[in-house]
Amino acid sequence: MKTHAQVVVIGGGLVGCSILYHLAKLGWSDVVLLERDELTSGSTWHAAANIHGLHDSTNISRIQHYTMNLYKKLEAETGQGCGVFQPGSLYLAQTPEREHQLRLQAAKARYYGMNFYEVDRAEAEKLHPLANFDGIRCIMFEPDGGNVDPSGVTQAYA
């Protein structure tokens, strides 16, 4: 076993394996992953693994948007299913403050070429017929929102 490495990643969950995957893609070879048990045995195995492309932080939004696009490519590259399921996500505002936040997100999405836009109540009811939209001031839709299988993604990265 090696006693030295240029990079040591601790934890074989989704994040640790993602770091190792991306370092390898950048040409790093002197890297080691340390895991006390087996891959995904920490918090990854029970993570909700929701995916969405927008965040209040612009840098995090860019990373999330990149990652959402990466999952499908990762399946094709590795042959490992990532369980990508993207039925879309609705974002609801009941207060003026939340409405303002969602409108800022929509402006940011347009600027970065992301798919996030306002829908009216009728469209929202078609998208989610079981939801009650009474008292909702603003409804935004992100068609690419959904979730992945965190264990599958981790195995694909590995």
From TrEMBL:
Transmembrane segments: none annotated. It holds the Pfam family DAO. It is an enzyme of class 1 (oxidoreductase). The lineage of its organism: unclassified sequences, metagenomes, ecological metagenomes. This is Sarcosine dehydrogenase. PANTHER family: PYRUVATE DEHYDROGENASE PHOSPHATASE REGULATORY SUBUNIT, MITOCHONDRIAL, SARCOSINE DEHYDROGENASE-RELATED. Its EC number is 1.5.8.3. GO terms for cellular component: mitochondrial matrix. The keyword S-adenosyl-L-methionine does not apply. InterPro entries: FAD-dep_OxRdtase (IPR006076), FAD/NAD-bd_sf (IPR036188). Residues 7-158 form the FAD dependent oxidoreductase domain. One of its GO terms (molecular function) is sarcosine dehydrogenase activity. Keywords: Oxidoreductase.
